[in-house]
Amino acid sequence: MSETYKILTYPESVLLTKSDVVENIDEDTQKLIDGMAATMYAAPGIGLAANQVGNLQRILVYDLSPQDKDRNLSVLINPEIVHSEGKIEYEEGCLSVVDFASEVTRPSYVKVQGVDRHGNPVTIEAEDLFAVCLQHEIDHLNGVLFLDHVSTLKRAMYKKKLKKMLKKGGPVTKL
Ligand code: NI
Questions:
Q1: 31 C-alpha vs ligand 1 centroid, how far in Å?
Q2: Is 89 part of a structural domain of the chain?
Q3: Would 1 be classed as within a structural domain?
Q4: What's the CA-to-centroid distance between 137 and ligand 1, angstroms?
Q5: pTM greater than 0.85 (yes/no)
């Protein structure tokens, strides 16, 4: 098992920054992916984007059953949503947004294209939670958090709460 990375949390600026296209998949990329996977499973979470561990490359990992014995890691590099439709409301949380969860409305179906960790092109069609997960992670790569999808009021309330937490010496609980 790889070493885990520290998961950065809002309002860390790297989370609000658009990530760069990966031009070259090399040994360092593989190391980063293994570390991201270990970090996601340890959290545990169902998805993680590279900027959540401080790396601004368009790489994400996901596994919809991270606690199962038969884990099945997926890796997407340079993912793009090429089609979306439908509508789903789902209660989202994020490893980088401590102590907050909220209903977010998104398309319920997405078609995503990218490459896997070996550079092979992949096309993924995802529905429901899978679609939510991919959109949430691709948002990360664009410097967007699920907070940006909630109402202004809810976001303002969270920012206020976070300010108080940070004043007290930082949030202690991790989702
Ligand atoms: Ni997230």
A1: 21
A2: yes
A3: no
A4: 6
A5: yes
Number of domains in the chain: 1
**2 within a domain of the structure (yes/no):** no
Ligand 1 centroid – CA 8 distance (Å):
10
Measure 23 CA to ligand 1 centroid, in angstroms. 24
Give me the CATH number covering residue 161: 3.90.45.10
Catalytic residues: 137
Q: How many CA atoms lie within 13 A of 79 on its CB side?
A: 30
Domain range for 119: 7-174
Show the CA angle centred on residue 116, arms to residues 114 and 122, nearest 5°. Answer: 50
Per the domain annotation, does 105 fall within a domain?
yes
> Read out DSSP for 95-153?
TTEEEEEEEEEE-SEEEEEEE-TTS-EEEEEEEHHHHHHHHHHHHHHTT--GGGGS-HH
Q: Are 157 and 101 in contact (CB under 8 A)?
A: no
pLDDT in tens, the chain (175 residues): 689 999 999 999 999 999 999 999 999 999 999 999 999 999 999 999 999 999 999 999 999 998 878 899 999 999 999 999 999 999 999 999 999 999 999 999 999 999 999 999 999 999 999 999 999 999 999 999 999 999 999 999 999 999 888 888 765 544 4
